[in-house]
Amino acid sequence: MPIFNWVALKPSQIDGTVFTELNDEKVLQELDMSDFEEQFKTKAQGPGLDISALKVKATQKAPSKVTLMESNRAKNLAITLRKGGRSIQDICTAIETYDQQALSLDFLELLLRFLPTEYERMLIGKFEREQQPPEELSDEDQFMIRFSKIPRLAERMNVMIFLGNFNDTAQLLMPQLNAIIAASMSLKSSSKLRNILEIVLAFGNYMNSSKRGAAYGFRLQSLDALLEMKSTDRKQTLLHYLVRVIMEKYPELTGFHTELHFLDKAGTVSLDSVLQDVRSLQQGMELTRKEFMRQDDSPVLKDFLKVNLEVMEKLQADSKTAKEAYESAVEYFGENPKTSPPTTFFPMFLRFIRAYKKAEQDIELWKKQEAAAKEAESSPPGSEDQPEVKLPIQKAKRQQMDMIAELKKKQMVKEPLIYEGKDGAIEDIISDLRNNPYRRADKGRGSAKKRAAGQNQQATPDISL
After folding, report:
1. How many Å apart are CA 344 and CA 342, to the nearest integer?
2. Hey, what long-range contacts does 248-253 have (CB within 8 A, 24 or more apart)?
3. pLDDT exceeds cutoff 50 at 51
4. Can you give the pLDDT at residue 7?
5. Is the pTM of this model over 0.85?
6. Pick from 18, 318, 324, 410: CA 20 to 30 A from residue 292's CA?
7. Cβ atoms within 10 Å, residue 158
């Protein structure tokens, strides 16, 4: 017969799959394979197989034995025991003495699924009462009898798995709790961040005062809108303008993000899962403590509790602090802790910080380009002794300026649009507008406290040109 090139699963890979429920030998017994062999035999194939002999071979198994387990469950247990690579007595002795060196954590977790059921315990009791010879049982049934004799078997197995997992789990949880605590506290205590948000609120209210009225705050997701609003010439965003204002008027706020810590790490933490893991560790620790009280002569349990009780107490304290610090920070910024997990809350600040840094870089680049353009304009024309070195953007800028100047000259020749008096009245008006910002003709918006007290500010009339 030709070889069927499939990808075969190893015995350790079929546990819990559909293949543990299949019986291929039964199919061979039901079907006549002679036609199949005739249809698919190779040319170099020798004499055909005796199908009847094949069927007999398929049906010939070990002598029928008394069984205490369901066939598929016994088959899976056999696979698990082979993976353990130890004798029945060694496995059970290791469980009785909490010997983690003898049994791997993976093997223990697999073996936990084969705790004797009530039905199996009943069959074991019946077998022992009838005093039948153990040789009639399969290896899996013999293991199950010895396995069921271990006192508090389920508790011992769970304690051993807990002992094996505790250190790795604790080391995984501690950095996550610390990140939540540090990020939450740094956000709430940052005075520079508060001032940045204050400036955003001021500009937002100024822009919306004639249409929506004054706002007392805004949702953090509104920070993303700073990138969406463009200036009239579409050359910069509202965030660019705010960053420029902060650089010029509030330079002490530059670098506000240096006050914020571990936002990226905290933004990946599922706080609910971490808190649940801490609770699970506490339950495992309580179970271990109870087992030690029942069996206080166990050096393994004694040493474990001595070393790790303090670690568990710190984990509990840190989990409580992280929960309180996070909820306090979220509420401080006007959000709801129930609907704003760390994976949503902290990334809003991260996006704002990245956009702010990018805006700073853009502004610095624009300043360099403007300085280079001014330097190119101020250089004396026709200086042939020095080679002319200009960047492409500077050349384009110069050509654009020359074209605008030429168009203005032609426009003034055809039809002068603006006439300036000898006293420079237009310059005076522009200067006055710059020195006295525009105010609405109705009433200006005061602070929340002044409105609450019923005080009104006197409106400044519009400037008439």
Report:
1. 5
2. 250/195, 250/199, 252/192, 253/192, 253/195, 253/196
3. no
4. 55
5. no
6. 318
7. 18
